[in-house]
Amino acid sequence: MSFYLIYKQLKDVPIETYMQSVSEADVRVVLTKQELNQEDLLALLSPAAERILEEIAEQAHRLTVQHFGKTIQLFNPLYVSDYCVNHCTYCSFSVTNEFERKILTEEEIEVEAQTLRATGIEHVLLLTGESKQHTPVSYLKDCVKILRKYFSSIAIEVNPLDTEEYEELFAAGVDGVTVYQETYNEDIYKQYHVKGPKRNYLYRLDTPERACEAGMRSVNIGALLGLDDWRKEVFLMAMHAQYLQTTYLGTEISVSLPRIRPTIGDFIPTTAVYDRYLVQCMLALRLFLPRSGITLSTRESPELRDHLLPLGVTKMSAGASTEVGGYSQDDKGTNQFEISDERNVNEISEALIRKGYQPIYKDWVHL
Ligand code: SF4
Predict the structure, then answer these.
(1) Is 78 in the pocket of ligand 1 (CB under 6 A)?
(2) Largest distance between two CA atoms of the chain
(3) Residue 119 DSSP class
């Protein structure tokens, strides 16, 4: 089975027409339901829902506290390589951008890990550009061997792998996989992914499923908001998450809402995803997937992150660097995108505590 079969049925659903027919009263009916279906999700993403966001936010807050309490898990990315063989039009690491590429040695990874760990962070997300040549599974395993000494949870955001490769990394100590589909729209996917193995839409779409099959504890998916109509993207991403959740009961499925940030190359997003739309996306996801984690990264401003906190967020990065060697090296790499919230781990922790939230540094130990 593959989500692709469901995608093919969903992609021709007249989403716009349906959404235009939704009234505020219809959305209020959705707010009374215990379990939501596909039409309910569309109602929450509709223009009518935009007009009663406050009411939806109350429900989202209630559900978030019910399932997660007032806790926020903190994690941070750690970039070990910016080599990439793909040309994605929206990313600084694209093979077409000329800059001095970096890949960390074992000694450099050790220092980088120590520096990040000293901030208090215990959950780490290991990132590379996508290049099997430069960062093969053997290199990733070497990285994990070092990171295991410092962190209780290690997730990866690297080039999509085969199931057996995920199994190998799981055995080495990786417990989570993050992979973004970027855009679910198969018709335009190749326009953004001009060159490289990432052009294979289906292989990427099936990646979360292969990670689940390999036994990963957590899998995080997302769409890069700004590449296509955000209502459709969030609808399809939520359906994808629901499919994974009901198929792989042993894996925790969470979602992210990354918006396009400035990069080298001056990519202009096709669709403007204003703050109020981002809020609507988060509320719809919280109501449709009440038990799913939702990540809000440092792509967003401190003010917006603080404002969105009670509405559904469960995971945040803090003091993040999107450069290779960004935590410890004087000679850092090029950043993948510009971050917006530059508060360090302590500052984020204090801001959370001031708002009555408990920052969680560790909820998992790999034995
Ligand atoms: S988005 Fe990923 S695959 Fe595409 S250029 Fe950037 S690092 Fe490479």
Answers:
(1) no
(2) 60
(3) T
pLDDT in tens, 171-193: 999 999 999 999 999 999 999 99
**What are the pLDDT digits (tens) for 56-89?**
999 999 999 999 999 999 999 999 999 999 999 9
The radius of gyration of the chain's CA atoms, rounded to the nearest angstrom, is 20
Long-range contact pairs involving 3-11 (C-beta distance under 8 Å, separation at least 24): 3/205, 3/206, 3/209, 3/239, 3/240, 3/243, 3/244, 4/202, 4/205, 4/206, 6/239, 6/243, 7/184, 7/186, 7/205, 7/236, 7/240, 10/235, 10/236, 10/239, 11/185, 11/186, 11/236
Q: Which residues of 83-107 are buried (b: 16+ CB within 10 A; e: fewer)?
A: bbbbbbebbbbbbebeeebbbbeee
- Give me the sign of the Cα torsion angle 294, 298, 299, 304: positive
**Ligand 1 binding pocket mutation candidate from 80, 82, 83, 84 (most atoms within 8 A of CB):** 84
Q: Which atom of ligand 1 is nearest to the CA of 84?
A: 8
- pLDDT tens digit string along 129-146? 999 999 999 999 999 999
d(CA 236, CA 257): 13
Encoded amino acid at 279, one letter: V
Do 202 and 244 contact (CB within 8 A), yes or no? Answer: no
Counting every residue written for the chain, the total comes to 367
Q: Kind of pairing, strands 87-88 and 193-195?
A: antiparallel
pTM over 0.70: yes
Query: For residue 261, is pLDDT > 80?
Result: no
204 Cβ inside 6 Å of ligand 1: no
d(CA 11, CA 236): 8
Contact 364, 153 (CB under 8 A): yes
Return d(Cα 26, Cα 8) in angstroms, integer: 27
For residue 156, count other CB atoms closer than 10 A to its CB.
25
